[in-house]
C-alpha cells in the first residue's frame, strides 16, 4: 500500500507524543531495524482510543511492546507504530484476598511475576522466564517452565482499530500453543490474572530458580530475541537446529547461539536482514535434512 504523501501532516491531535521517522533499533533487544514513519506514545487508554478512532483506516498501525521477540526490518515500519509508554500501561496492582493481579499491557512479565509473589499470590512465577510484556504474552499465549498465559488469565481488555474498547475472557480467545485468536488490529491495554495463595518466600524462591536456570541455559546477556522458532509437534526447535548442524554458525553479523541453538544473536554488526536470512537458512536446511518445518516464533515487522 502506498500512502498519500501528506498523511502525516493530517494526523489527529494527541495528549501523548508523536515522533516522525523515529529510530526503533534501540527499542529492540536485537538492536537492529529501521525507523517508524510515525511513533505514537499515548498518554493513556483514552488517548489511544481517540487517536485510533480519528486515524484514517488506510494508515497501517503496528504495536511494539518490549520488542524482545521482534525483528524490525531494515526498511523500518510503515504507518503508525504504537508503543504503550504512558501512565497506567505499566502499572501492576495485586488483590491478595481474591488471588488476582491486575496489570497494564506494558508491564514486564518478570515484574508481574515478582509483584504477584510479594503479594502472596502464586501460580504466576513462570512469567519470570518470559522476556516481554503482558500485552505480548496475551498476543502469543506466552509460556515456559510448564506455565502458560491462557491458564492464569481471568479477563483482558484492549482497544481495536476503530477505537472501541473490547473485553475478552480466555474462552473468547481460542488459545492454543503460542497463539490467540484476536480481532484484527486489537491493542491490548490490560488484564487480570488469577493465582492462588502462596507464601511469598516460596513464590520468590521459585522465581529465583527460574532466573538462575535462564542465566545458565540461555544467552540472555547477548543482543538476542528469545526463542526463534516454535517447537514442532512432538519435538523441540533447538534440537532440530542442533541436529541440522547450525549451533554456533555465523551468517553475516548474526550467529546461532553456541549456548542455546534456538536463539539468534547480533554479534554487534548484524543487520535485520542478517538475522532474518539466518533464520530462513536454518528453516530450509532443517526441512531438507529432517523433514521438519520450523515456524517463526519471533515476529518480523516492517519493510526489507
Number of domains: 3
Q: Quick one: biggest sheet?
A: 5 strands, antiparallel
In percent, how helical is the residue content?
Answer: 25-40%
Order of helices and strands: EEHEEEEEHEHEEHEEHEEHEHEEEHE
What is the CATH class designation of the largest domain?
Answer: Alpha Beta
What is the number of E strands?
A: 19
Nearest-angstrom radius of gyration?
20 Å
Low-confidence stretches: none
Strand order of the largest sheet: 6-7-13-11-12
Query: What class would the helix/strand composition place it in?
Result: alpha+beta
- Measured between the Cα atoms of the first and last residue, the distance is 15 Å
Number of helices: 8
- CATH topology name of the largest domain, in short, is Uridine Diphospho-n-acetylenolpyruvylglucosamine Reductase, domain 3
Shape designation: globular
Overall pLDDT score: 96
| Beta-strand fraction estimate | 15-25%
What would you say the CATH architecture of the largest domain is? 2-Layer Sandwich
Amino acid at each position: 500500500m502506498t500512502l498519500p504523501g501528506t498523511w502525516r501532516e493530517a494526523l489527529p491531535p494527541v495528549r501523548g507524543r508523536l515522533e516522525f521517522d523515529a529510530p526503533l533499533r534501540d527499542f529492540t533487544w536485537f538492536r537492529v531495524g529501521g525507523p517508524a514513519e510515525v511513533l505514537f506514545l499515548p498518554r493513556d487508554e483514552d488517548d489511544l482510543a481517540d487517536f485510533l478512532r480519528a486515524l484514517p483506516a488506510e494508515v497501517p498501525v503496528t504495536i511494539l511492546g518490549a520488542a524482545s521477540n521482534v525483528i524490525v526490518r531494515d526498511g523500518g515500519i510503515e504507518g503508525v507504530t504504537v508503543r504503550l509508554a504512558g501512565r497506567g500501561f505499566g502499572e501492576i496492582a495485586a488483590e491478595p484476598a481474591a488471588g488476582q493481579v491486575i496489570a497494564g499491557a506494558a508491564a514486564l512479565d518478570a515484574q508481574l511475576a515478582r509483584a504477584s509473589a510479594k503479594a502472596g499470590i502464586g501460580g504466576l512465577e513462570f512469567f519470570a522466564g518470559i522476556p516481554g510484556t503482558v500485552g505480548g504474552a496475551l498476543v502469543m499465549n506466552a509460556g515456559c517452565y510448564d506455565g502458560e498465559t491462557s491458564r492464569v488469565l481471568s479477563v483482558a481488555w484492549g482497544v481495536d482499530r476503530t477505537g472501541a474498547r473490547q473485553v475478552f475472557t480466555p474462552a473468547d480467545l481460542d488459545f492454543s500453543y503460542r497463539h490467540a485468536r484476536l480481532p484484527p488490529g486489537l491493542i491490548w491495554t490490560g488484564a487480570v490474572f488469577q493465582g492462588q495463595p502462596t507464601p511469598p518466600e516460596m513464590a520468590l524462591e521459585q522465581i529465583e530458580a527460574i532466573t538462575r536456570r535462564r542465566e545458565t541455559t540461555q544467552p540472555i546477556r547477548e543482543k538476542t530475541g528469545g526463542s526463534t522458532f516454535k517447537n514442532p509437534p512432538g519435538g523441540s526447535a533447538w534440537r532440530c537446529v542442533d541436529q541440522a548442524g547450525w549451533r554456533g554458525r555465523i551468517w553475516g553479523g548474526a550467529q546461532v547461539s553456541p549456548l542455546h541453538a534456538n536463539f539468534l544473536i547480533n554479534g554487534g554488526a548484524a543487520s535485520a536482514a542478517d538475522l532474518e536470512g539466518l533464520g530462513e537458512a536454518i528453516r530450509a536446511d532443517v526441512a531438507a535434512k529432517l523433514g521438519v518445518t520450523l515456524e517463526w516464533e519471533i515476529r518480523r515487522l516492517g519493510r526489507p
